[in-house]
Records
---
Amino acid sequence: MRLITVAGPPSCGKTSLIIKSCIHLMAGGISCAVVKFDCLKSRDDVLYAEANIPVSVVLSGGLCPDHFFATNLEEAFGWASKSQCCVIETAGLCNRCSPHIKGLLAVCVVDNLMGIDAPEKIGPMLQMADLVAITKGDLVSQAEREVYRHRIRQMNRRAVIRHVNGLTGQGCMDLAAIMAEAPSVETVTDMKLRFPMPAAICSYCLSERRIGSKYQKGNVRKATFGKTPCSAI
Amino acid sequence: MQRDLSVLTSLTVTAGRDKSGRGEEQDIVFRPGEISALLGPTGSGKSRFLSDIESIANGDTPTGRKLLLDGVAPDSDKRFSLQGRLVAQLSQNMNFVLDMKVLDFIVTHAQSRGVPDAPEAAARVLDVANRLAGEPFEAQNHLAQLSGGQSRALMIADTALLSWSPVILIDEIENAGVDKRSALELLVKSDKIVVIATHDPVLALSADRRLVFQNGGVKGKFQRTAREAELLGALLEMELKISTIREALRSGIAPTLNLL
């Protein structure tokens, strides 16, 4: 099965873009399934179902959504294994995570409304993607689109960059053509994440709610204030 | 990689088929410095045509059209490097979303293009934009402070002078509050292939030729005739009168019938 990870900040157009691309794939005779990893609530299953795309929405609830993704990937693969192409949609909520996996097609979706400094802030989700899809380009000036694209290129030298309109589906046929060529694998067991997930295990991971150093145990790092930070990664 | 398109001398969209599968009659060739207008009701196939250009169609879209650059279908490497960058767009829906000073932003754009003297290039863009805009703006104004007309003027000047893309698609700029004739002249002088999707008769007639769409395909191709050029002249006179009346109203002078 071809497995594709699609990551991007909330509301940037991931779902629209996946639906439009899957419609093209299915029209070409490739059966699709989508697994959506979300946090608290999602109505995206309705959107996928309306497009006749088999979907499984799973919610991380109180857990870190990206760790939840990694711990459930084998099972997600198992669920989707009857289809020829499985798209995994995840929200890289803190912009620090990257769900991308070595040897699988990795897509990052960003939108043009995030401002031209966004590519620098997004991190490995963008830097380690094979394909960067930019949405909402119809709302900003050509100049901003070009500068934005340039900044993405500076952060990721090798990715294919595509402008896509999630509303009209413009560009999705091209995306589907790339997805149809995604690497196909028999299993995800023993595959590796491209980038480690953020570490945690402190008192707050264990539901501590009180503020104060005296309540903090485990992997705790104190920041230096009043200084310009160097890159955190 | 960035320069190889500055020498594009023609772009051809080969004949494809309409929504009923009927073949189009002829290939359409576009050349730099030439304006083409796309006309036809919503759903007639204008957007499909434009996205065939944008995606560098290779017989792989529903229309079956192919795109040729200088008469040759680009190889897969070239297709890959051009995709999504062939067409620059200008439309009424577009806004600057950045919170930056005008000059700083245009300098940033020039730098992203690797222009040797970015501040000088940016100053030129501002100068041209100010000639297109009804009311001038300052280099130190913030992008978000610009009026609709000023934004559009800046976008047009920037696209003409700094955009990498050899093809410019203009969508519905008729009410944008800029001097549209000067804007078109500027784009043509910058040796871009200019394509306008419009419902405005003045813009349609300003084009060297018109492509009329129906049922998903190109139905007709019309070169502007001498008589149509005359009609354009008459329409421009009418527009001038309308704008004289508008100016009179704006400056508190009661307009009279003899302004017509």
---
Amino acid sequence: MKTVYIDSQNEINYKIEEFLKPQLIYIPLKNNKLLIKNGDYVYKGDIVALENETNFSIYSSVSGNVTNIVSKFDLEGNQSDYIVIENDFKEKYKNKLGYSKAFSKYSKDDFVKLLFNMGIKGLSGSNNKTYKKYINEKIKCLIVNGVECEPSLCCDKSIMYNYSEELLECVDSILEIMQIPKAIIVVKEANQKSISNIKKSIGSYPNITLAYVSDSYPIGWDRCLIENVFGLKYKKDPSEIGIIVNSVSTIYAIYETLKFRKPLIERVITISGDGIKKSVNVKVKIGSNLNEIISQICQYKDKKDLLFIVNGLMSGISLPTDEVIVSSNLNSVVVMQKKFIKSQECINCGRCVELCPVKLYPSIVFKNIDNLKMLNKLNVKSCINCGLCSYVCPSKIELSEYLKIAKKKVDDRNEV
Amino acid sequence: MKFDTKFGNYIKCSNNTSKILKKILLIVAIIYFLTFIIYITENKVIFLFNTSIICIVNLLLELFYRKMIRTNTSILHILGNSYVLIYSFLISLLTPINIPLSVLIIINIFSYILLKIIDKFLKIKINYICFVLFLSILYLNINNININTCSYLTMNVFLMLMMIIIIAFLTINDCLKWRIAISYFITLLVITSVYSLFFNINFLTSINFIFSFYNMIIGTFVIVDMKTTSVIPFSQIIYGIFIAIFMFISIEFLNYYWFYMFVLIFNIVNPIIDNICIYVKNKNSFFN
């Protein structure tokens, strides 16, 4: 699978700042069954909603009173309704947290139930329910994905740098609980600084090794990563070949769950770009408002024509406002000036076809965007939205956007 | 706080169409210069004059077309972002030397207009150089004029090695669909070898042509025209193989101008081959 080096010039300090005192917390109403109503008092760590189809728990990350329902933007750029909890800044838990039992005392079923009950999800942007990966009986290897190939991301690297002992302890515990023979922490060879602390302690864990990959994109994508590290391929899910992939952020969330029985209520995000005064990695509460976080921690520069991009420069989207609520699948925010060259006519160079990781034909999709019959043949639904076609196009055509449009057209047609 | 929005991704590579076209133009200019020094032994001034006129004609055509479709008409922009100069140099290099300049100008104008109409209304892309060359040689044939072929139909080891380096340079800089060039040369070599073996023909004569400067220019720039060739890798290989077969048939049994006609026919057939490749890809991942 071909990958491309992307020069992002992303120099961010690995120090993790904290913004854990938001005024208000927002719980989404869309696709969720609310368990609270206006006027209720909730404790930190209370289950406040359940996902409609799966009954997956959504927790309050603060203690306080439920006030009203407001409309804010989600990470897909859609306006949704949220119920608001006013933070009383007392951080009250209903039940005392702490060690419940030693890690090694967990059985496989206990561990899987814990991941489900504590609402642990994939924090690299996938938003998949983590417990589903551990249901599989025959797991041969756990891959801890510390690659972070998206140019604007730094949160996993900062977690590896600051919490190396915790990560290794957690991975070792997962191996013991689930009886997995080995784990591999995969990082980019260029990111030696982020794993300097891991390297000091990894010798104590004989079942955990480090593996290096090149500094390229989209090497952090599971399929590409497994092909690079093991030389193996799979059809739908890496569990088919006995491999589980978890990001570093997810492993750290599992650590807090195992150690403190803490549900998924906080995460680290990267905020960067030439539109803000300070680029940071910041630990925030899930449900807080990005506007508040950026105003307090980073502050905007006085520049015009700024873009507010969530979830990366390659595969993210730009939103019209910063009144956006932090969710578990938000990993970065980039505020940058809008300086782009106008697109030109396609010169038919074929670069997009050469580099597409799923072997699509983006330039042919672009030329046949109104031909539904052709779009059906071009297998556009396999597009993973990596953005590589748009990146490499010398004519600066937004091919990834055309692929999204094509996917939507094919979906709409199939529905009819 | 309010923000602008933009679709697509938000980081772009430093490569752009202008850089690609400038690299190709630089290489073509070097080849033109070498041809002028080594092969054009008489009427050098006329050769240069003819090239300049072809460049001006093509530039004016492109300027007029851009005015019609209301796009950027800056001459510098046209020179840096279009194939005007590249096509002009290649046409000057490859057309028979004895074709009258006036006829060549008319052929250029006619080809340009016709191909734009075919592209606009029939959505078929035709190789501009091949079309001009085909019409030029057809004119000479109709008027029973012997085609005064270029003297660079024989192999020159230095130039052959230089062309190999050029192919590598263009491939590394993403300016060439290398599969077409490589499959063309390899197929030509294989067919020639097999034919020489079976029919006891002098193999060296064929090698002389395959690696001649003229054929290497055709194999690198004429048949690998970015605009008219497929983006699908397997389709490119099929194209290279078939074009090599057509070239072999043209030089051994027909006249080599038939080769240009074969290329034009293949331009029309290309979308069908693309469709077949897409269909087969959906059934089998081998053809990726």
